[in-house]
Amino acid sequence: MRTKTLKKNKINVVTLGCSKNVYDSEILMGQLKANKKEVVHEGEGNIVVINTCGFINNAKEESVNTILEFVQKKEAGVVDKVFVTGCLSERYKPDLQKEIPNVDEYFGTTELPGLLKALGADYKHELIGERLTTTPKNYAYLKIAEGCDRPCSFCAIPIMRGKHKSTPIENLVVEAEKLAAKGVKELILIAQDLTYYGLDIYKKRNLAELLKALVKVDGIEWIRLHYAFPTGFPMDVLELMKKEPKICNYLDIPLQHIADNILKSMRRGTTKEKTTKLLQDFRALVPEMTIRTTLIVGYPGETEEDFQTLKSWVEEMRFERLGCFTYSHEENTHAYTLEDNVPEEVKQERASQIMEIQSQISWELNQEKIGQSLRCIIDRKEGPHFIGRTEFDSPDVDNEVLIDASKYYLKVGDFVTLKITEAADFDLYGEPV
Question: For residue 131, which of 26, 104, 299, 401 is within the disulfide window of CB 3.0 to 4.6 Å?
Fold first, then answer.
């Protein structure tokens, strides 16, 4: 009689979408490892967990295609089981179960214990801050809150992630200490909304208090702020940024639009005048700060006049970093009740025009850096270059500094002072001083 050999399971976690998803995958992997499970990130494994994104059409399409790809592998006997988690699964579970039934099980964004159980593991409450990081060893994301209470008309995040829920300061400090012990030097603070941090548990906006606690963590040298909502921004954070060298002179603040009627329809709770004043206050308080923003073009009802208002404002504000997206009509959002009446080619053309203006601004600002010496962190080696970043740049989305690897040897994860010798639209070239 033949006996079936016991094959050791290997779990492959595949992450799609934003940095918040990266963080969730790392927590999942940390739990699996604590349960003595063999786990890899985007490698080879006979059990697959896909952490999906459901934010806009392109992301949903990528998630569905990835699920289908692994279901085909399952049908071909290449993998044994496929589990799906994350935002797409939270938002469209009944539809997915009907359309792609060959997935073993679907889990939402808050169902980690259930997912672990399906993988033969127990959820361990005591594992505060235990993660298997997937980013380069020198930086890691620190998610300080989950969910969002903002009513933005175009956004499906509250549907997928629920109400805002801050993580207590002491838990985040423990997590930061564990990351620092692994060699992490840069913390990138993320949430759906950084500005709101603490209101639910401390009854006040408490981002500055959190930062005061995090800067005391030995080994952490840079702390970067991402996803700060403009309305109600706690200005004490800027006072701290100005005097605390560990807090990068950098702020990511998604503004989405500037024409008053569009802001009102988007339910952003602000106006062109208030937003412009806020940015002027930022610049007055921390003149050396880099501001990154994101904009949406082609929102329902956006006229040519609204777009020209946005264009002139981008030219006037001269953001150091800017990304532009075309509007995506998302069901169950408030904006879904409006007619998606800007043609796709007009949306694309408007996005191109904004990015053209931005690339010129970026080129001009980069020229000013030639001859300067800047402290950079080395992220990786790629082809003939070492790739570094200044404190004014976040990984994956911002400018990089390229250093000729045939002339200089640098160690990934180290801080180095680089003299900027050349500058392009979005990249700088430098040499160690």
Answer: 26
Tell which phi-psi region holds residue 57, choosing left (phi > 0), alpha (psi between -120 and 50) or beta: alpha
Please answer whether residues 132 and 39 qualify as being in contact, where contact means their C-beta atoms are separated by less than 8 angstroms: yes
> Residue 87, SS3?
helix
Q: Please state, in angstroms and as integers, the Cα–Cα distance from residue 139 to each residue in 105, 182, 184, 251, following that order.
A: 33, 10, 5, 17
pTM > 0.85: yes or no: yes
Q: What is the rounded distance in angstroms from the CA atom of residue 258 to the CA atom of residue 186?
A: 32
CA 64 vs CA 59, 78, 93, 99, 167: distances in Å: 9, 19, 12, 10, 31
pLDDT at 228: 92
The phi and psi torsions of 286 (rounded to 5 degrees) equal -130, 80
In this structure, the dihedral spanned by the alpha carbons of residues 121, 122, 127 and 133, taken in order and rounded to 10 degrees, is: 20
DSSP per position, 150-211: ---TT--HHHHH-S-EEPPHHHHHHHHHHHHHTT--EEEEE-S-GGGTTHHHHSS--HHHHH
Alpha-carbon gap, residue 108 to 115, rounded angstroms: 9
Distance between CA 247 and CA 145 in Å, rounded?
19
Residue 332, burial from CB neighbour count under 10 angstroms (0-12, 13-18, 19+): exposed
State residue 127's pLDDT score.
Answer: 73
Q: Distance between CA atoms of 70 and 48, rounded to whole angstroms? A: 8
**How high is the pLDDT of residue 366?**
95
H helix or E strand, kind and range, residue 108: none
Q: What is the mean pLDDT of the chain?
A: 93
The amino acid sitting at 245 is P
Q: Are 53 and 17 in contact (CB under 8 A)?
A: yes
CB 143 within 8 A of CB 23: yes
Cα distance between residue 285 and residue 307, in whole Å: 30
pLDDT at 3 exceeding the cut of 50: no
Longest CA span, the chain: 81
Tell me if 174 sits within 8 A of 128, measured CB to CB. yes
Cα 159 from Cα 33, distance rounded (Å): 30
DSSP state of 104: S
- Tokens for 77? 């006997």
Q: Which residues pair with 324 in a beta bridge?
A: 295
Q: Name the region of 100 (left: φ>0; alpha: ψ -120 to 50; beta: rest).
A: beta
All residues at 6 or more sequence positions from 113 whose CB lies less than 8 Å from its CB, including other chains: 123
